[in-house]
Amino acid sequence: MALCVGICSPAHVSAGAFSYRGGGCQASRLRVLCAVQSREENVRSTMKALKSQNHRPKKWLGQHYMVNEQVNIDMVKAAEIQPGDLVLEIGPGTGSLTNALVDAGANIIAVEKDPGMAVLVGERFGHTGQVEVIKEDFVKWPVVSYMQQALEKRSGASDPPRRAKVIANLPFNITTQVVKQLLPLGSTFSHIILLLQDEAAIRLVDASPDCEEYRPISLLINFFSVPEYKFRVERDNFFPQPNVDAGVVSFALKQESEYPRVSSTKSFFTLVNSAFNGKRKMLRKSLQHLHTPATTQAALTSIGLLGTARPEELTLDQFVALHNALTQQTTTS
Ligand SMILES: C[S@@+](CC[C@H](N)C(=O)[O-])C[C@H]1O[C@@H](n2cnc3c(N)ncnc32)[C@H](O)[C@@H]1O
């Protein structure tokens, strides 16, 4: 590593959206050599940490460890971490991202499902007093009550509690579930920064009706947050190497007063989910278990759409208008 000081600055990393190429970058031979050496060293220290726990990476837990420190540093930058911020990290693994958070002065609650990794990360950061490790399956963990209590403990009696942030190199198999679980929590979290499969990252931030993957989750994301694609991370930055590249996305969470105006969020998403049950069907058909076709058609025309509209043609604002028109018609009839 010492060899690389002053030469290894990631020249291919610029502000805005960029891409981490691991050892495959187009920079000078020396820089490539340094990147390879530094990555090998990171792989070695990851292996050493794993060996100390007699641990082989578990595929079923999505254990692909980050071996490029600069990616961790840039994820922390993307989260705009300030000293004293409370950060929830999902799946700390060997603690490489945790380490960048500690360096930035954050206080971290790290939830790890693998007992061996929970022990490892607890031992690694015990002396800092900045990391609390919780050995739990994040999906079953009571995130709101735990984080609210932690925020309240930290805030003075007078000032309103600062919201926490979430950061994670997420196991790919729980991505959708975690996104759905966290996005509506704008009173607890201000930002969520996730490293995901690149394809999922692109799909989640592109929520326009023209997008082929336009689905209820696209509407959910824009209802509750402002998403942004930050940068791409190529597969050779992980150990073991996955079959696909990754991407980092940020969700700036809205607070309740900023949500689109609907009478009930629950009934709004019931409408959206029902609408997409038959993506190719006309709304007046797919919504017929909620409203008669005539009612849906009248509501559609009252907001300036054709009575034959299909779900993939409506923007979030138009779904909101449709929901409100249907609610109004139901209450007046
Ligand atoms: C992709 S690895 C990332 C590890 C580390 N943060 C890094 O960047 O190198 C995913 C981590 O999440 C953990 N994990 C998997 N499923 C989990 C769950 N349901 N709840 C909490 N942690 C989980 C795995 O054990 C693993 O440590």
Report what the structure shows.
The chain has helices at 29-52, 69-78, 96-103, 115-125, 143-154, 175-182, 198-205, 216-224, 265-277, 283-286, 293-302, 316-332, and strands at 18-20, 65-66, 86-90, 107-112, 131-135, 164-169, 189-197, 225-233, 238-239, 246-253. The chain has 333 residues and is an alpha/beta fold. It folds into three domains: 2-52; 59-258, Rossmann fold (3-Layer(aba) Sandwich); 265-332, Orthogonal Bundle (Helicase, Ruva Protein, domain 3). Strands 1-8-10-7-6-3-4-5 form an eight-stranded mixed beta sheet. The chain has a two-stranded antiparallel sheet with strand order 2-9. Strand 3, helix 3 and strand 4 form a beta-alpha-beta unit. Helix 2 crosses helix 3 and helix 11 (293-302) packs across helix 12. The model is unreliable at 1-16 and 22-27 (pLDDT under 50). Bound molecules: S-adenosylmethionine (SAM). S-adenosylmethionine binds at residues 61-66, 90-94, 96-97, 111-114, 117, 137-139, 169, 171, 174. S-adenosylmethionine is lined by residues 61-66, 90-94, 96-97, 111-114, 117, 137-139, 169, 171, 174.
